[in-house]
Design goal:
It is built from 10 helices and 65 strands. Strand 55, helix 5 and strand 56 form a beta-alpha-beta unit. The protein has 783 residues and is mainly beta. The relative contact order is 0.06. A 14-stranded parallel sheet has the order 1-2-5-22-27-30-34-37-40-43-46-49-52-54, with helices on one face. Strands 3-6-23-28-31-35-38-41-44-47-50-53-55-56 form a 14-stranded parallel sheet. It is 10% helix and 33% strand.
Length: 783
């Protein structure tokens, strides 16, 4: 008996020696020749990872002590490079750990002239990002950086005109940034030099998969010595190996900490579908100061408008059961977190991601996994060459991964074709309880139908499409195997090959229990063949809900505040359903002669809206009236008991959107709450707000006479604040808006309702009566 006990004790000892949790420590004052204990920590994370190789079958934790860790090179973890059962890389006891992609330099400064200092600095590659005391400084640029400017923090139509170019002695190495001519994202060019006629030689423009000239108005140029004229700017002369800095006011450059970016990726997990990197967690770390990647963004994502760069501050490529939790990403030059190719059951949770150059989180598969792929808008595979097998060809794509509870704001600081969360060539991705705002384009984007099964739920997505146009807070494309740009061809294809529309989007995408808001587009925008969607229990606060041509979309139990349903160019036998929704304004159809399977049993907040819907032959059983929201003025759209909307089959739903982690919830912003249009018309004297100005109905003979109006139609402007969009567009107190596009404006509320149908266009023609004279002007609704 004693012998058995001794043997058992020995086996237990062996088990725990090989399977116990093991910790290894890293500290900025450590030494890589140390043992890795808390008393004798390593200095670098790379040394700790080498130590982990000896910890077979153990759960290893790399504990990093507080401090800034400037990496000499990207931390690369390959399949087979560690033997531990699981690996966690985390900050020790929540000490602040910063992993930086920059390198600090001690420089010998001397005054150059006019407040500009210079210092010799030898760099192998030209400098892209400079940080002074941890703060990013802009390159010398024209026009100068303006934190209040809407697009690119400052643009000018004359950024690269002939007079400007003549001033630049040697512009090689400078950059031109511009919006796409259609404002569908951004374009970026490197200046190679000047030709014999003094014209710029440019390389680039491949950052958008819908080719276009650069926008004539929204453009700027940077990295030019002649433009170094404002405090806070810098320029690096790569030929002379000389750094020039115009210090910000109050900064002693001789005492400042200067760091220059040199890495694009900080941590890379690299495996593949056959041998994935498994069970790695990254927790409680700050990731900062990587270089920009806009000139590397050139790989087309099938037929969507996107091109991408497969990189990020943290890159997962060929992983399983890996996670990144409670980390902070800021001043990242490109993507923050990128899951590329095969990744399964990974988790991105409770991170704070802001001020990043491209997308915050991206799930992007390998196009080699797609059957019969095409790579531009008008390209397609011929019918006799097409693979008609359902679903993917391989498993080399993100699947069953989650992005949960992340606070994301101000992504896309340089790359405008970007998103808070991007999904492309992936399946069963869950995006849940994220707060996403201040985005240049979509908050969440799905680039194609491959391969569906995504769940978007409980997200708070607002203040979106700030710098671009023709987009939504949520946007999708569905330019899959069946799709053509001519809907008549699509109709003939589906008639000949029923079911082809579901070859790629195998499982339905679900959009539920979200709150979306977009003032410059649609709250929910399903574009170009987006198919197989179930959309329910969402609150749309501003831009309404758009369904362009596609199949098998069921839209029900949504609340569309101050806007409406936008059906565009629907297809025959689409099987679409729009029912049991609350709608504020009249529908806004474009080229609709097919109304799907069902458009009925909705509840309208105005009689005119319902009347117009019935004129299309739909909504025969719908009603209108007061929906009896619990407290719409505070954003609570729960229906009270006895609401007539309940009789239309609507039900109350969970409206708890956005981040849940208390630390993130405390700092997360919320979308603005605006009065319901339906409430604004209670009483003719009600004042409304439009583009920051105050407007009212024309009500008295005196108001008619002063404006020179033939009747009391129109919306009278009573107050125009100096910084309002109305003022920036030249509107004045006393103007009466009598037409928006070709539609007569009957009243202030009528202006709002008509405006909601067309505001996505960005620039809108209006007719005003000013000083008893009609004038037609174009207004930019984003200015």
């Amino acid at each position: 008996m004693l012998r058995n006990i001794v043997a058992l004790t020995a086996l237990i000892a062996i088990y725990f020696s090989t399977n116990a949790q093991s910790s290894v420590f890293v500290a900025s004052n450590g030494n890589d020749n140390n043992s890795g204990s808390i008393q004798k920590p390593f200095k670098t994370i790379s040394a700790a990872l080498l130590f982990c190789n000896a910890k077979a079958n153990a759960d290893v934790i790399i504990e990093i002590r507080g401090g800034v860790y400037y990496l000499d090179s990207t931390i690369l973890i390959r399949n087979g490079s560690y033997k531990s059962r699981s690996l966690t890389i985390r900050a020790f006891k929540n000490e602040k750990v910063i992993i930086s992609g920059a390198k600090p330099y001690h420089l010998e400064w001397q005054l150059y002239k006019n407040g500009i200092f210079k210092a010799p600095l030898y760099l192998i590659e030209p400098a892209d990002r400079l940080f002074c005391n941890g703060i990013i400084l802009p390159m010398a640029r024209y026009p100068n950086y303006d934190s209040t400017a809407r697009v690119f923090n400052g643009t000018a139509a004359d950024a690269i005109n002939n007079e400007k170019v003549k001033r630049w002695h040697n512009p090689a190495g400078a950059y031109v940034h511009a919006l796409h001519n259609g404002e569908w994202g951004g374009l970026h060019y490197k200046i190679i030099g000047k030709d014999a006629n003094g014209k710029l030689i440019l390389e680039g423009g491949w950052q958008n998969n819908r080719p276009s000239p650069m926008n004539a108005k929204y453009r700027f140029v940077e990295n030019l010595f002649e433009e170094l004229d404002t405090p806070g700017e810098w320029y690096y002369d790569a030929a002379a190996k000389m750094l020039y800095v115009f210090p910000s006011t109050g900064v002693d450059i001789c005492k400042a900490t200067i760091a220059i970016g040199h890495l694009k990726e900080l941590i890379v997990l690299k495996g593949d579908a056959r041998q994935p990197v498994k069970n790695i967690s990254i927790k409680n770390i700050f990731f900062e100061q990587t270089d920009r990647t806009f000139m590397l963004t050139k790989e087309p994502l099938l037929r969507s408008d996107w091109t991408i760069y497969r990189g990020g501050a943290v890159l997962f490529d060929g992983t399983e059961h890996c996670s990144i939790y409670n980390c902070t990403f800021t001043e990242i030059g490109g993507n923050a977190i990128f899951l590329s190719n095969y990744n399964k059951d990974d988790l991105v949770k409770d991170n704070h991601i802001y001020n990043v150059g491209a997308s915050a989180i991206a799930f992007v598969g390998n196009p080699a996994a797609v059957r019969s792929p095409s790579f531009s808008y008008d390209a397609f595979v011929e019918w006799n060459k097409m693979d008609y097998t359902v679903g993917p060809l391989t498993n080399d794509y993100p699947q069953y991964c989650k992005a949960e509870g992340n606070l994301i704001h101000s992504p896309g600081t340089i790359e405008k074709q970007s998103a808070g969360v991007e999904i492309d060539m992936a399946s069963h991705i869950t995006v849940s309880h994220n707060s996403i705002y201040k985005t240049p384009r979509a908050g969440i984007n799905i680039g194609d139908g491959c391969w569906g099964g995504h769940i978007l739920e409980y997200n708070d997505v607002f203040n979106t499409v700030r710098e671009t146009g023709d987009h939504g807070a949520f946007n999708s494309w569905g330019r899959d195997r069946f799709w053509r740009s001519d809907r008549n061809i699509i109709d003939s294809i589906i008639a000949a090959k029923p079911g082809i529309e579901l070859l790629d989007v195998v499982d339905p995408n679900i959009i539920r229990n979200n709150r979306f808001q977009c003032d410059h587009g649609w709250d929910i925008d399903l574009d170009d063949g987006s198919s197989n969607y179930q959309i329910y229990n969402n609150i749309c606060l501003s831009g309404g809900l758009k369904l362009r041509e596609g199949y098998h979309r069921a839209v029900y139990n949504n609340i569309i505040v101050n806007n409406t349903f936008h059906p565009h160019v629907w297809l025959k036998n689409s099987d679409d359903v729009f029912a049991h929704n609350i709608v504020t304004a009249p529908y806004a159809p474009i080229q609709i002669d097919q109304w799907g399977k069902q458009v009925d049993s909705n509840f309208f907040l105005s009689s005119d809206a319902l009347k117009e819907a019935k004129s299309y032959g739909v909504d025969r059983n719908s009603l209108w009236g007061d929906a009896m929201f619990v407290h719409a003025t505070s954003g609570d759209y729960e229906l009270q008991k006895g609401s007539p909307a309940l009789r239309m089959g609507l039900t109350n739903f969970n409206m708890n959107t956005g981040v849940e982690l208390p630390a993130l919830k405390r700092i997360a912003e919320k979308p603005p709450v605006r009065p319901l249009m339906a409430e604004s018309v209670k009483g003719r004297s009600a004042v409304i707000e439009w583009l920051g100005a105050k407007l009212k109905n024309v009500e008295t003979p005196g108001e008619r006479s002063a404006a020179g109006l033939p009747d009391e139609k129109g919306a009278l402007i009573t107050i125009v604040p100096v910084n309002s969009a109305a003022h920036k567009n030249g509107l004045q107190k006393g103007d009466v808006i009598v037409k928006i596009k070709d539609n007569v404006v009957l009243s202030a509320i009528d202006l709002l309702q008509k405006f909601e149908k067309v505001k996505w266009m960005g620039v809108i023609e209006i007719t005003i009566m000013r000083n008893q004279s009609l004038q037609t002007i174009n207004i930019n609704v984003k200015e």
